[in-house]
Amino acid sequence: MEYRAAIDISSTGKHFDNAQLTIGEEGIKTPAGFFDYADIIRFVPNNFRVYIYTVNNTTLTVSMLGHSFAGFCEELAACFNARSLQALFIEEECIMDCQGEFQIPVTSVSPAEQGRGRIALYPDAVCILPESSQAVRIPLCFASNISLDGYIIRITMRTGEVYYFGKMGYDTKPFAERCIKYAGDSVKKRNALLSQIEVSAPYTGKGLFRTADEDKYWASAFGQYCCAVELFTDENTATYLYRFTDRPLFSYRLEEAMEAVGSHREIIFMDDDKLRQNPLYRMAVHRSEAVRFLRSCTAGRIIHTESHDEKLRQFLSGN
To answer: Is there a contact between 124 and 212 (Cβ–Cβ < 8 Å)?
Structure first.
């Protein structure tokens, strides 16, 4: 939708009166240029102004919206959250969608965040969608415990991170009950699917992508401080190599990253230059600590040629 407002751009000092802004599916079009949602850190409505902070230290201040202020804020939040859901690769139908309070733990690139925002339940995950770039998808299959304490739901992950959310009125208890149910269903289904997968040497580990994607899986082979990962999908073209210092941590993050990318597996091996050219994938990497971790461990790949097996053996042996 189009709006008329005053705009100030901090990085250039430029001011626009009665300027036209258009909120779209991928970003905001202004006289000062296009602001992609991938480059927005957060937006803050305050005193009839909207402050939009970006990754390049530019602040876009939108004011003089008049009676359109509330509508502008609502549409900006809705479009920004919809784009975040695309970046989290949400494909399943939403089960519950509520407004509530949340607390997101610290990550490698972001401090802990708390506030009020949209909280949505899907068959395999809970999504917390603040008015910032810290939207998260919490995979229920990796939760070690889900509990309800008063009006607050707590999800503890197997690696120790804890997510808090709740105070959703009468929806709080049903939301918690459904979280527990769908977490159990997800774990049960994944275990059943994994039990049907057979791997052969040198591969000893195995895993799934999304729970609903039953036909695709991956296998892992470990050396002392290295790992080779084979993707068993429709595009079997290479084996992906990684180096690490902490095997248990790497194993957890490998599983979480593969689950996070789902059918968009190119993210795990796409080089940084190509990633910068794909705003949606940049959003995806920013919103998943596991994907960032896996990408940071990359050590190349082995193309499926006649020399593949020998190169794989050399890599795993440390040569």
So the answer is: yes
